[in-house]
């Protein structure tokens, strides 16, 4: 089992507050910030201090537990109404990663069942901790299944950061690399920088280097040339929402990589826990795609790189159609096409 010795937990429940590894500050500064209110949690998700689908979900769950603990209402109905408002506030932070809504739904169910305020406060903390522990376990299993797909010496390309810091621990797409390192199983990782906000350059390169994984950074527009020149064996990415037919929303740029994988005849894998599936959606066409401030494109790390007043279009995610996906690696095993038929055998 991998221990990820040098990597800290990115989200920690501390009873009176939540401690977060500030992913906005990395890699220049490794700092931990303390969230003392639901509003702090909302702001941290919105501003990407915590990001990555599973990490967003479990941080929001801890946010609900925190809000409930701080609630002053003495009437159970008032308490439930106020905590429900906290849940709604957190649900409005980011729209695409379904893990957020999955985790908040679990918290809401616990809230609704509670018979007293003190029981609710205790049960909400318990549930948030359970969501965290389950995510850690799911990611560990994803690492095992994912590693079974690679051979010693393979070169694998990844995009964005689907690592330990984007989950409770281990990561999804990066979990096999952590496991490989632990087992002295040689793999070479190529990380796309991931414009506009550089999760690949800032976070994946940092995380894998911390763990001693062999990682090489490229800019996004180098992917085709690199796949060809460096004989990349496979591409693996995470996911923010997977529809019932296998269509997958992930960080903007993922679709282009899936098309490249098809062109070059290499496998394209998605790694995600069952909490990332949204079986209520028939296809990816209904996945809401977050559009973020154009300043993320016109500025890099605070420096303007485009003319004042230029028009921008800044979708944070794209949808890869299922027919471009070779396999979806879950904690329950690797789902292969026909996805619409096979997903229910792995995800309930
Ligand atoms: C295990 S994290 C999986 C995905 O959430 C990840 O690939 C991704 O797209 C993250 O986007 P972000 O905007 O950084 O939250």
Automatic annotation (TrEMBL):
Sites annotated Transition state stabilizer: 160
Pathway: Amino-acid biosynthesis; L-methionine biosynthesis via salvage pathway; L-methionine from S-methyl-5-thio-alpha-D-ribose 1-phosphate: step 1/6
Binding residues for substrate: 51-53, 94, 199, 250-251
One Pfam family this sequence matches: IF-2B
Keywords assigned: Amino-acid biosynthesis, Isomerase, Methionine biosynthesis
Catalytic function, reaction form: 5-(methylsulfanyl)-alpha-D-ribose 1-phosphate = 5-(methylsulfanyl)-D-ribulose 1-phosphate
Keyword Protease recorded: no
Cited InterPro entries: IF-2B-related (IPR000649), IF-M1Pi (IPR005251), IF_2B-like_C (IPR042529), Initiation_fac_2B_a/b/d (IPR011559), M1Pi_N (IPR027363), NagB/RpiA_transferase-like (IPR037171)
List of catalytic residues: 240
Gene3D superfamilies: translation initiation factor eif-2b, domain 1, Translation initiation factor eif-2b, domain 2
UniProt xrefs under HAMAP family: Salvage_MtnA
Subunit structure, as described in the record: Homodimer.
Family to which the UniProt record says this protein belongs: Belongs to the EIF-2B alpha/beta/delta subunits family. MtnA subfamily.
Function, as annotated: Catalyzes the interconversion of methylthioribose-1-phosphate (MTR-1-P) into methylthioribulose-1-phosphate (MTRu-1-P).
Protein name as it appears in the record: Methylthioribose-1-phosphate isomerase
Source organism (scientific name): Peribacillus muralis
The organism's taxonomic lineage, starting at the top: Bacteria, Bacillati, Bacillota, Bacilli, Bacillales
Gene: mtnA
């Amino acid at each position: 089992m991998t221990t990820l010795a040098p990597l800290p937990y990115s989200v920690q429940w501390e009873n009176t507050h939540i401690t977060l590894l500030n992913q906005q500050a990395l890699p220049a500064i490794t700092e931990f910030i303390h969230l003392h209110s639901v509003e702090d949690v909302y702001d941290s998700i919105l501003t990407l201090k915590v990001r990555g689908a599973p990490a967003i979900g479990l941080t929001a769950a801890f946010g609900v537990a925190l809000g409930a603990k701080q609630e002053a209402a003495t009437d159970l109905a008032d308490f439930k109404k106020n905590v429900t408002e906290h849940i709604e506030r957190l649900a409005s932070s980011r729209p695409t990663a379904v893990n957020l809504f999955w985790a908040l739904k679990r918290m809401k169910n616990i809230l609704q069942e509670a018979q007293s305020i003190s029981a609710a406060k205790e049960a909400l903390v318990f549930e948030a901790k359970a969501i965290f522990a389950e995510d850690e376990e799911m990611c560990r299993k994803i690492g095992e299944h994912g590693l079974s797909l690679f051979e010693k010496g393979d070169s694998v390309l990844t995009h964005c950061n689907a690592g330990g810091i984007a989950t409770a621990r281990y990561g999804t797409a990066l979990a096999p690399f952590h496991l490989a390192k632990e087992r002295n199983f040689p793999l070479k990782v190529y990380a796309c920088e991931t414009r506009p906000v550089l999760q690949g350059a800032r976070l994946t390169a940092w995380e894998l280097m911390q763990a001693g994984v062999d990682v090489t950074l490229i800019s996004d527009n180098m992917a085709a040339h690199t796949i060809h020149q460096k004989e990349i064996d496979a591409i693996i990415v995470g996911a923010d929402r997977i529809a019932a037919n296998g269509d997958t929303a992930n960080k903007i740029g993922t679709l282009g990589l899936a098309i490249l994988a098809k062109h070059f005849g290499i496998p394209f894998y998605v790694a995600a826990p069952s909490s990332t599936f949204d079986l209520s959606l028939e296809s990816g066409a209904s996945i809401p795609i977050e559009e973020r401030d154009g300043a993320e494109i016109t500025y890099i790390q605070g420096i303007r790189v485009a003319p004042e007043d230029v028009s921008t279009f800044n979708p944070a995610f794209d949808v890869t159609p299922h027919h471009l996906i070779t396999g979806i690696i879950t904690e329950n095993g690797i789902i292969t096409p026909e996805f619409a038929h096979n997903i229910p055998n792995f995800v309930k």
